[in-house]
Amino acid sequence: MRRARPLQAFMLGVLLLFTPVFALWYWLAGFHLAPVVAVTGTLVDLLCPDALMWLRLDGHTLVLASNFGHDAAGQVVSPPTGDDLLGFHLNPLIYCYSLPLLAALTLAVPGPDRGLNLLWGVLLLFPVEVFSMVFSVLKTLTFDVGAAFQLQQGITPLGADLIALGYQAGVLILPMIAPLVIWIALHRRFIITLAPRLEQVLST
After folding, report:
1. Amino acid 23: pLDDT
2. How far is the CA of 33 from the CAs of 36, 126, 149, 201, in angstroms?
């Protein structure tokens, strides 16, 4: 019965912390997403030159202005011949919710190292968020701009499939798995106190 108490206290702490941490994450989205957007814009420019006009945050919304537009015949061309630019509004919060989940898990662990572990967790989570955002932008350009973008960048059907696969991994899989993997890696000793039998597994 004694062994269950630390686990119950930890689970209760996660439940109590998640709502305020989630609210703080939502309100401060413009701050914690800014570096992700900056790195994503640079990477997409390197991977797909001349495809983006700019990538910016508008509150919680990621605004993508492509270097494509419609000509007089209604065909998608690049560079655009007028003011009819193809732009898109994306929601980065759907794949960046790993941060409040990781924060709640980390802050619920007792001990003086919570702040340091949270900092390490944020740093380790950053490339995951960049990966998800990069493939979200690439998926939008590949399938929403369409054939003009694929022709400009020389994207084959296999390349389009790989972009779709990267998008699915970055939006559906990594946001759920990454915070748990990072948390486990940073809290091996605490996990052993919750389940002593895991000591042999984690030590291998």
Report:
1. 96
2. 5, 10, 26, 36
pLDDT tens readout for residues 8-20: 888 898 999 999 9
Taking the alpha carbons at both ends of the chain, their separation in whole angstroms is 28
CB burial readout 12-23, b (16+ within 10 A) else e:
ebbeebbeebbe
Evaluate whether 84 touches 70 at the Cβ level (below 8 Å): yes
Look at residue 2 in the predicted model and tell me its pLDDT: 44
* CA 131 – CA 95 distance, rounded (Å): 10
* DSSP for residue 198: G
The closest alpha carbon to 3, from 202, 203, 201, 198, belongs to 198
- Strands 76-77, 85-90: pairing kind: unpaired
Phi and psi dihedrals of 138, rounded to 5?
Answer: -65, -40
Please write down the long-range contacts of 193-197, taking CB distance under 8 Å and 24 or more positions apart: 193/6, 194/3, 194/6, 194/7, 194/10, 196/3
Helix (H) / strand (E) element for 56: namely strand 52-58
Alpha helices by DSSP H, listed for the chain, are 4-27, 29-32, 34-47, 98-107, 114-139, 147-153, 157-168, 174-186, 188-194, 199-202
Question: Tens digits of per-residue pLDDT, 72-86?
Answer: 666 777 777 666 778
Domains of the chain: which residue ranges?
4-51+93-202
Q: Give the CB-side neighbour count of residue 186, counting CA atoms within 13 A.
A: 26
